[in-house]
Amino acid sequence: MTVRALVVDDSRTMQQLVSRELEGSDAISVVGIASSAQEARQMIKALDPDVVTLDIEMDGMSGLEFLERIMTLRPTPVVMVSSLTSEGAEASLTALEIGAIGCFDKRDLSLRGEAGKSSLVDLVFTAAKARTSPGFGNRAARVQSPAQAKAATTYRARDRSVIGIGASTGGVETLIELLRNFPVDCPPTVIVQHMPESFTKSFADRLDRLCPPSVEEARPGAVLAPGKVYLAPGGLQHLEIAGDPSRLHCRLIEGDKMNGHRPSVDRLFHSLARFAGANALGMILTGMGNDGAKGLLAMRNAGAMTLGQDQASSIVYGMPAEAFACGAVTEQLPLRRIGARALEWCRA
């Protein structure tokens, strides 16, 4: 299968660089190049590309405004291409929340991954496999105000219960959708979401604003407590839990990548199997690859409840599919039901 890509950027130099990078793969064809949102809109209608690469900062209509229109009117897999400074990380998170499949740093053009492939090529291939529909990225319809989100609830978690979540491609909007329905006093929850180091602090802050529980980037020694959600920092360390079942805490461990990732979902899930056992619930969500499958199976073998997101609601049905195929998933559910099932299982 040849992936048909449309490149959208108002810089001629970047148009050439991105196009050359993509056409370095025999399996990608650049079918068009647009310099503005208006030109891109016409090309999307005429060419029906499999994937659009889109600059965040453009003259006239910004990439974020155009992305929102694409996801509302003609959902298409989109990869944002930008310079990921600290300000760019905020814009990129907004793009992922709207419905972009991934974000690529312009400074990494020609950077080769572990298998010698272009990082941008890998991301475009991932995007081509993603599911998009008008329902994804509809932020206005789903996000509560912070005042609504922090309202008190009557939920009480069972003593020692803990939730572990793993996600990758498509995980930003999926986690917002999931956690906005968690109560303010939810079970202690630890999350590994594959994303760059510069993103995770901003993402934790965003989740904290939008969702009822308190969300923070995990710190070494942070004690797991009801109403708290801990997001693994990106890039340099793995997140694990450890300690006595009645007083578990976060620990950050240096080490090689696992399944191509650091932090790795497998590392988190294996630690939950060891230290939380039958008190834990593991949840594997949308994402490319197989990270988390073996760890979730270890959790199930240790007596934990294990949930997997189903294919129909996954933006990329890769990680949940691998976990289901190896027998790690006790129940496979759509996103709209998976959070309620987890809370029901953990209720006192």
TrEMBL record:
SUPFAM superfamilies (alphabetical): CheY-like, Methylesterase CheB, C-terminal domain
GO cellular component terms, semicolon-separated: cytoplasm
InterPro entries: CheB-like, CheB_C, CheY-like_superfamily, Sig_transdc_resp-reg_Me-estase, Sig_transdc_resp-reg_receiver
Gene Ontology MF: a single term: protein-glutamate methylesterase activity
CDD domains: CheB_Rec, REC_CheB-like
Any Pfam family: Response_reg
Record's subcellular location: Cytoplasm
Post-translational note: Phosphorylated by CheA. Phosphorylation of the N-terminal regulatory domain activates the methylesterase activity.
EC number: 3.1.1.61, 3.5.1.44
UniProt-annotated catalytic positions: 168, 194, 291
4-aspartylphosphate: modified positions: 55
Domain CheB-type methylesterase stretches: 156-348
SMART domains per record: REC
Record keywords, A-Z: Chemotaxis, Cytoplasm, Hydrolase, Methyltransferase, Phosphoprotein, Transferase
Keyword Hydrolase on entry: yes
UniProt xrefs under PANTHER family: PROTEIN-GLUTAMATE METHYLESTERASE/PROTEIN-GLUTAMINE GLUTAMINASE, PROTEIN-GLUTAMATE METHYLESTERASE_PROTEIN-GLUTAMINE GLUTAMINASE
Family: Belongs to the CheB family.
Purpose: Involved in chemotaxis. Part of a chemotaxis signal transduction system that modulates chemotaxis in response to various stimuli. Catalyzes the demethylation of specific methylglutamate residues introduced into the chemoreceptors (methyl-accepting chemotaxis proteins or MCP) by CheR. Also mediates the irreversible deamidation of specific glutamine residues to glutamic acid.
Domain notes per entry: Contains a C-terminal catalytic domain, and an N-terminal region which modulates catalytic activity.
UniProt protein name: Protein-glutamate methylesterase/protein-glutamine glutaminase
Species: Qipengyuania pelagi
